[in-house]
TrEMBL record:
Top-level taxonomic group: Eukaryota
Name of protein: Maternal effect embryo arrest protein
Transmembrane segments: 35-55, 76-101, 121-145, 166-189
Keywords: Membrane, Transmembrane, Transmembrane helix
Organism: Davidia involucrata
Keyword Transmembrane among record annotations: yes
C-alpha cells in the first residue's frame, strides 16, 4: 500500500526524535563514565592521605610548638573518611544511573546506549552525583590542609611553606569547583 506523505513525514519526525534521544543518552552515559573515573582518582588520593594519618609522621618544621598534634591527625582521618564517603556515594549513584540506562530501560538489548529513561530521574540522579563529587572535593581539600600541617607545620605558626601550599591549593581547587558547579548548573537548567 502506498504511504501518504503525512505518514512518511510523521515517521521521519519520529525517527529524528529517536535519533536525538539516542544521542542524548550516549552523552549521559559518557558523562557518567567520566564522573566515575574522576571519582576513582580522587578515591586513590584519599587512601594516600590516610597513609599519612599515622601518629609517627615527621614534620619538616624545626619548632616543636609548630608541629601538628594528634588533633590534626584525627581531623585528617575524619575528613578522609567523609571525602571517601561522598566520592563513593557519587560513584554509586552514577553507576546506578548507568545500569538503568544500559540494562533496565533498553528496548533492544543490542542497543543498550539508546535507552528510554525518565529524564527527571536522570537529572536528579546526576545532580546528586555531582553534589557528592563537590562535597568529596571539599573534604579532600580540608584533609590536604591537615596533611600540609602535619608535614610543614601548623598554619597558626604561619610557616611560609605551609601557608603558600594551602593558599595555592585553595585558589586552584576553588576555581575548578566554581567552573564545575557552573557547568553542572548550566547543563541542569538547559
Amino acid at each position: 500500500f502506498p504511504l501518504s506523505q503525512q505518514s512518511i513525514m510523521a515517521e521521519s519526525e519520529s525517527h529524528s526524535k529517536d535519533c536525538q534521544h539516542q544521542e542524548t543518552t550516549k552523552v549521559y552515559v559518557t558523562a557518567l563514565d567520566g564522573l566515575v573515573n574522576v571519582n576513582s582518582l580522587f578515591t586513590i588520593a584519599v587512601f594516600v592521605g590516610l597513609s599519612l594519618a599515622s601518629p609517627g609522621q615527621r614534620s619538616f618544621e624545626d619548632r616543636s610548638v609548630c608541629k601538628a598534634g594528634i588533633e590534626v591527625a584525627k581531623r585528617l582521618l575524619v575528613f578522609e573518611v567523609l571525602s571517601f564517603s561522598f566520592f563513593l556515594f557519587s560513584s554509586l549513584v552514577a553507576q546506578g544511573l548507568k545500569l538503568a540506562i544500559n540494562l533496565l530501560n533498553s528496548e533492544d538489548r543490542g542497543e543498550a546506549l539508546h535507552a528510554h529513561i525518565n529524564k527527571r530521574v536522570l537529572r536528579i540522579g546526576m545532580l546528586g552525583s555531582a553534589v557528592g563529587s563537590v562535597m568529596g572535593c571539599l573534604f579532600l581539600m580540608l584533609s590536604m590542609v591537615c596533611v600540609i600541617e602535619i608535614r610543614l607545620g601548623t598554619l597558626y605558626c604561619r610557616s611560609r611553606s605551609a601557608v603558600q601550599a594551602v593558599a595555592w591549593m585553595t585558589i586552584l581547587v576553588t576555581s575548578a569547583l566554581v567552573v564545575y558547579i557552573s557547568t553542572a548548573i548550566y547543563a541542569f537548567l538547559h
